[in-house]
Amino acid sequence: MRTMWTFTVKNKIKVAMLFFSVLCLVMLTNIQEQRLVKRINESVTSLYSDRLVVGDYIHKLSNRMEKLLILLSTANFSPKEVHSELKKIDQLNTLYEKTVLTDKENINFNKFKIYIQQITQNVNATDHAQAIEISKYARQTLETLSSIQVEEGKVKLDEVLSMTSTSRLMSYIEIVILIVIAVLIQILVFSAKVDMGAKVPKDHRLN
Question: How confident is the model over 66-85, as pLDDT tens digits?
Answer without folding.
Answer: 999 999 888 777 888 899 99
